[in-house]
């Protein structure tokens, strides 16, 4: 491996020294790594005496190559005019790229202008596919452009080829401090690597501005403003190659999304919901040393020129219900502008993103259904853009689910009941299907998954998803809700009318009934005892009236009334006491009830005795102190009995 590396480096320097060019930039490590395969491929091609596919059949009359390096996405526009110098009709034109360059080729587009001369006509996009022609070196990748019609002998055709490359600008140095500008290296060939002989060719390299550290010098190379021009070069043989290295400042934010998952969820009730999950990294020179927010806030254009603190999203018109959040929660630092023609969202991450720093976030928004869903030949057609709406982002892996980045995943979530699903995408993607379950789903919602790697803004084209959907399926979820509420009400009605009690013939049920009867009887006894105590209080009141008025006759009437009331209460009490006495469920409470009745009866006797004594004393005209002395013992006994009766009543209340 070391011998091969040194040999490649030796061949590179031979090719440079044998030409009239020279370079002021010496980056030996990058030269060896990048130029090894391309230089070897060039010499292998030149060693092949007769590449049968292209020899003598075609030649490029004029070729103009313009490479735009103003951002971190490299865009090369080739304008070439090809002539058929052979005898056979030619139906395709070959484009060649070194494998190391082809692996970063994200998109290629070939346009053919149907008009001639000054007559303007519409451009036609020609099919461009990867091919492996026989007799060609394996170190090169070839693309075949299918011409709209065969090219006769002596005929010419003019083509415009746009090639978009990612990860082609290498930071050098690879680590910088917060205060440093970002320098990058771009490597290419001054000669377009054409499989045909080239009559005249020029190369232009557009830079973003700022300083240019160095670039490969040619006698006919010049730097004017921010553009380096090489050429014109004349009569170049096939597969001519001359390395060019440009070392320049590029502080454009290198926004790279390692993974983007776009979930497009269709609701036939009037909305298309888009949810995009980003895993973003700054792909430029990594930041070394500490970060000073004070310096960044004071001079952000100098102290962090290559960082980015905001991102621009160009959303479809009439986007609504927009939100922006990360793992912590909702982020309010965003700005939104929208009208009937365009919608723009500017978001600010929680911190500025420097080289090598990462952030993850989610944005979501809704779109009017009628703008993106149509009926075509009895099918539903979703017509929506594929790529990321973020400006100048590279997506390593994009996943689209219908329900900037090296890879992107799109998921289209279709309504439950959809079938016959198919997709039409203007470029190759990996497709699959999933099932997603949401609220009130029974069989789940079909999800069409579209996955593509190395996605650039040029991939933000419209794609179509076709599926069958019965309008009656729209009633499924509402009917399910109605049925659910109906069954709930029916269940409540049945429950209210169902006898959930225990069987009346069971022992436990009978015991429960007897216990309830005992409790009711005890309650009645308590009420009767309380009524008796109330009669006692009335007798006491009649004695107080007697001491105040001396009306003996009224006092006797009060006693007679009280006696009658107590007799009636005793009659009511007797059957209740008898029931408790014979009830097995009252065995634990009967002693207290029996004691309560006895105490109350004793209290009645002493109450009447005291009342008779006081009345007799008043009839005999005795003094008040004499009366008190005679009833003192009776008064003490009555007070003690009253306390005992109250305690027994309280005990029964607790039980």
UniProtKB/TrEMBL annotation:
One GO cellular component this record assigns the protein to is: oligosaccharyltransferase complex
* Record's keyword annotation contains Endoplasmic reticulum: yes
Pathway in which this enzyme or protein is active? Protein modification; protein glycosylation
> What positions belong to coiled-coil segments?
624-651
How is this protein situated with respect to the membrane? Answer: Single-pass type I membrane protein
Pfam families recorded = Ribophorin_I
Q: Which GO terms describe its biological process?
A: protein N-linked glycosylation via asparagine
Please list every transmembrane segment annotated in the UniProt record, as residue ranges. 479-496
Q: Where is the signal peptide?
A: 1-23
The record's subcellular location field reads: Endoplasmic reticulum membrane
Q: Which UniProt keywords apply?
A: Coiled coil, Endoplasmic reticulum, Membrane, Signal, Transmembrane, Transmembrane helix
How does the record describe its quaternary structure? Component of the oligosaccharyltransferase (OST) complex.
What functional role does this protein have?
Subunit of the oligosaccharyl transferase (OST) complex that catalyzes the initial transfer of a defined glycan (Glc(3)Man(9)GlcNAc(2) in eukaryotes) from the lipid carrier dolichol-pyrophosphate to an asparagine residue within an Asn-X-Ser/Thr consensus motif in nascent polypeptide chains, the first step in protein N-glycosylation. N-glycosylation occurs cotranslationally and the complex associates with the Sec61 complex at the channel-forming translocon complex that mediates protein translocation across the endoplasmic reticulum (ER). All subunits are required for a maximal enzyme activity.
This protein's name: Dolichyl-diphosphooligosaccharide--protein glycosyltransferase subunit 1
What species is this protein from? Musa balbisiana
């Amino acid at each position: 491996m070391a011998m091969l590396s040194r040999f490649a480096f030796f061949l590179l320097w031979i090719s440079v020294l044998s030409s009239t060019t020279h370079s002021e930039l010496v980056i030996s490590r990058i030269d060896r790594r990048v130029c090894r395969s391309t230089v070897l491929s060039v010499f292998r091609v030149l060693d092949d005496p007769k590449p049968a596919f292209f020899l003598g059949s075609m030649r490029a009359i004029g070729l103009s190559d313009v490479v735009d390096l103003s951002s971190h996405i490299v865009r090369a526009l080739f304008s070439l005019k090809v002539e058929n110098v052979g005898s056979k009709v030619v139906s395709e034109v070959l484009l060649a790229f070194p494998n190391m360059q082809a692996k970063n080729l994200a998109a290629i587009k070939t346009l053919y202008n149907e008009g001639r001369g000054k007559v303007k006509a519409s451009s036609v996009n020609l099919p461009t596919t990867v091919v492996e022609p026989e007799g060609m070196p394996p170190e090169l990748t070839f693309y075949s452009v299918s011409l709209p019609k065969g090219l006769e002998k002596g005929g010419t055709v003019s083509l415009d080829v746009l090639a978009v490359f990612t990860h082609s600008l290498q930071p050098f140095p690879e680590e910088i401090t917060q205060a440093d500008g970002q320098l990058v290296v771009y490597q290419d060939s001054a000669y377009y690597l054409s499989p045909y002989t080239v009559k005249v060719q020029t190369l232009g390299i557009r830079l973003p501005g700022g300083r240019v550290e160095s670039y490969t010098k040619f006698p006919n190379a010049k730097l004017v403003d921010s553009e380096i021009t090489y050429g014109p070069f004349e009569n170049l043989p096939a597969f001519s190659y001359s390395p060019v290295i440009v070392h320049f400042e590029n502080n454009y934010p290198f926004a790279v999304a390692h993974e983007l998952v776009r979930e497009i969820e269709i609701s036939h009730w009037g909305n298309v919901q888009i949810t995009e999950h980003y895993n973003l990294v700054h792909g430029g020179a990594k930041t070394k040393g500490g970060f000073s927010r004070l310096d960044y806030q004071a001079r952000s254009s100098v102290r962090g020129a290559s960082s980015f603190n905001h991102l621009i999203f160009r959303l479809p018109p009439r986007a609504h219900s927009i939100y922006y959040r990360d793992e912590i929660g909702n982020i309010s630092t965003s700005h939104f502008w929208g009208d009937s023609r365009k919608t723009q969202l500017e978001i600010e991450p929680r911190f500025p993103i420097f080289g090598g720093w990462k952030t993850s976030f989610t944005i979501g928004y809704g779109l009017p259904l009628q703008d993106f869903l149509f009926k075509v030949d009895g099918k539903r057609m979703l017509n929506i853009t594929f790529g990321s709406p973020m400006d100048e982002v590279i997506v390593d892996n994009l996943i689209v689910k219908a329900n900037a980045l090296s890879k992107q995943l799109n998921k289209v979530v279709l309504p439950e009941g959809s079938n016959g699903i198919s997709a039409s995408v203007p470029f190759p993607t990996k497709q699959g299907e999933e099932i997603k379950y949401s609220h009130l789903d029974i069989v789940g919602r079909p999800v069409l998954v579209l996955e593509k790697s190395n996605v650039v803004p040029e991939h933000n084209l419209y794609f179509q998803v076709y599926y069958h959907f019965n309008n009656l399926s729209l009633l499924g979820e509402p009917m399910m809700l109605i049925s659910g509420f109906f069954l709930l009400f029916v269940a409540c009605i049945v429950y209210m009318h169902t006898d959930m009690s225990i069987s009346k013939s069971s022992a436990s049920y009978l015991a429960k009934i007897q216990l309830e009867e005992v409790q009711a009887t005890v309650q009645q006894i308590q009420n009767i005892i309380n009524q008796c105590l109330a009669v006692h209080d009335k007798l006491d009141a009649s004695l107080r009236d007697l001491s105040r008025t001396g009306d003996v006759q009224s006092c006797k009437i009060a006693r007679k009334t009280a006696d009658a009331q107590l007799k009636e209460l005793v009659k009511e009490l007797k059957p209740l006491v008898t029931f408790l006495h014979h009830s097995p469920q009252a065995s634990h409470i009967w002693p207290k009830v029996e004691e309560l009745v006895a105490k109350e009866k004793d209290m009645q006797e002493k109450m009447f005795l005291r009342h008779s004594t006081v009345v007799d004393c008043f009839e005999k005209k005795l003094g008040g102190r004499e009366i008190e002395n005679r009833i003192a013992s009776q008064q003490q006994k009555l007070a003690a009995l009253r306390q005992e009766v109250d305690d027994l009543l309280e005990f029964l209340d607790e039980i």
